[in-house]
Amino acid sequence: MAALTVYRIKRFFWWLCLFFCLLSWTILLTFSASWLYRLDAHFLGIASQVSLSTQQLMRNYHQMLDYVLFPWVQNLQMTDFPSSFTGVQHFADVKQLVLLNYLVLLLTTPLSVYFLRRLRQQNLLWQLQGPAALMAGVPIIILFALLINFQDFFTVFHQLLFRNQDWLFDPALDPIINALPATFFLHCFLLAIGWFEIGAVTGWLIGRHALNSLA
């Protein structure tokens, strides 16, 4: 009985590792999708709302993104958008979360690759079906919350991630918020759900194919 309990704990650890690996890659791919902002800048008319050209707007967006994504970029400097102390602090908090995500990614990716290789060597890839289906269900729940009331979801999301209220930007002090409409953040969440679903469904299909191969 004790051996079975240890086995289940170990197996749960590997599935959890796989989940966080997929989640960390989803976060990185979503943050890196500057093409999404370019599309929204065009279709939402963001550039005209902040009296900048699309080229100027994208330069500022990439300056913000470089600060958040690259550990060696230590100062937030946007050409056309000044930042208040609390605004800079919020971006610093976001940067810390991104760095944490890098750590999770670096730890879970090789472990997940090792785990999947072991499953393949032992002809156990069919076991992916159940956990992958469960993972695929998580974003669906989040999607319903988004569609019901995105503003409430967005508020709760920030309250869970941040210990302060620095994310409540004053447009007069941090005009960058005018260039980051709520619709853009909604699209970011939808993109993240899409990335995660692709990964989960791919895992399920691999498991399904492995099961059919055993028949």
From TrEMBL:
InterPro entries: Lit (IPR010178). The chain crosses the membrane at residues 12-37, 97-116, 128-150, 184-206. Keywords: Membrane, Transmembrane, Transmembrane helix. This is COG4478, integral membrane protein.
